[in-house]
Amino acid sequence: MTSFGSHTSRRSFLAGAGSAALTTLAxxxxxxxxxxxxxxxFLAAPGRAxxxxxxxxxxxxxxxxxxxxxxEIRVKQGDRLRVVVENGLAEETTVHWHGIRLPNAMxxxxxxxxxxxxxxxxxxxxxxxxxxxxxxxxxxxxxxxxVGRGLFGALIVEEPGPPAFDRDLTWMLGDWRxxxxxxxxxxxxxxxxxxxxxxxxxxxxxxxxVPEPFRVRSGERIRLRLINATNARIFALGFKGHRPRVIAxxxxxxxxxxxxxxxxxIGPAARADLALDMEGQPGESFAVVExxxxxxxxxxxxxxxxxxxxxxxSPPADDVRLPANRLPEPDLAAAERHEVxxxxxxxxxxxxxxxDGHTMPMRDMMRRGLxxxxxxxxxxxxxxxxxxxxARGRSCVLDLRNETAWPHPMHxxxxxxxxxxxxxxxxxxxxxxxxxxxxxxxxxxxxxxxDNPGDWMFHCHILEHQxxxxxxxxRVS
Length: 477
Ligand code: C2O
Ligand code: CU
Ligand code: CU
Fold this sequence. Notes:
Elements: E1 7-11, H1 19-28, E2 36-49, E3 59-64, E4 70-76, E5 80-87, E6 96-98, E7 122-128, E8 133-138, H2 143-146, E9 153-158, E10 167-176, H3 191-195, E11 203-206, E12 214-216, E13 221-228, E14 235-239, E15 245-249, E16 252-257, E17 264-266, E18 271-277, E19 285-290, E20 298-305, E21 336-344, E22 352-355, E23 358-361, H4 362-367, E24 372-374, E25 377-378, E26 388-390, E27 395-402, E28 408-412, E29 417-422, E30 425-426, E31 432-433, E32 435-438, E33 443-449, E34 454-460, H5 463-467, E35 471-476
Parallel strand pairs: 2-5, 4-9, 10-13, 12-20, 21-27, 22-25, 26-35
Antiparallel strand pairs: 1-2, 2-3, 5-7, 6-8, 8-9, 10-11, 13-18, 14-17, 14-19, 15-16, 15-18, 19-20, 21-24, 22-23, 27-33, 28-32, 28-34, 29-30, 29-31, 29-33, 34-35
Bound molecules: CU-O-CU linkage and copper (II) ion (2 copies).
């Protein structure tokens, strides 16, 4: 019998209905190995977690299979995943596989792509993994509370031939609003958080723990996968004494480069893969610092070098280049263009928005727990009329204009998009993302091929903003 969180992997699974798809995948795999089927069973339920260390009380959380973060899924590109999710919570849930280009029915959006999983119910997610990279999973039902209480986990899709690193590590960043007795403050979804910066906590964790020193050895080359699983916290991370190279963003390889201004900017839901060469000397210690909100550095953790033997004299000199995923290239000349205005929030000057088909003054919106709009429409729970319908295969440019006083990490489901410009200037690397952080009053153009049929969410990943109306649907038909 499988137990909760258990994982079985069957290479050569080539029987029954799945065989056609698997055979196709096998022939398209670069390195010729047979795709594996990986099966997990997850229980979403209340649990206890030692977030703040051994000397402090445990915290009541909601989590997958008893752990924060949930079990790390690690599979190979082209493999197939099957996850049976059981709901042990007292409310509806779903699981969304953030950044994965999967069939719409597996996308985990309640009422849009599936009925929510009722308490005591279950849902089976099964899909192939077309792209290598760093992804994650989380609920899409009342996400502002469910994610904020601990429901999130990493989904790592390895390249067919693993790149040359001594270690491949994940730092999943969490942010918690804890009371003095280390319990989660229950003030989820309050209007103050919703209409300003979102729910910022007071305790940052790495992989579900207040970070301890990160132990390394001189000469090591580490792949560090940063995943921002917080509701609302933006990080700008600096690695003192080191020269990290950014090698992938939101799972998609990027030309290796030093982070702009020496800081790795990573908004909610974003991922950054770093090649981190351990250039320090045995016994040395360096801080990793966060500077987004204060400017003054706040220490996240220390990188601590072991005494004694080195892994090698110095890390290799060459950059690690990851093989590109096969993403459809948007045809910019032929693309249809759409303006997308982000409005609302405190100090944004929005007077009213359309709510359930009617114009509503901001004052009344606030009473309904709404504060944001996309193209003048504030989304409510069950309103899923598409803002845009795109013909399948069409190239599309979205001209995103942030008219608010707050940053917004805007996320598109089911696709990856290229960032082609910011404030009118061409983006230097035209990176592929699934979540683009747009600063107050900033403008960004993104482009993608609408090749995945279905109704796809497009929303702010500050989860309080999403709940407060900054959400819409793009239909590909
Ligand atoms: Cu990571 Cu619609 O979400
Ligand atoms: Cu997503
Ligand atoms: Cu937002």
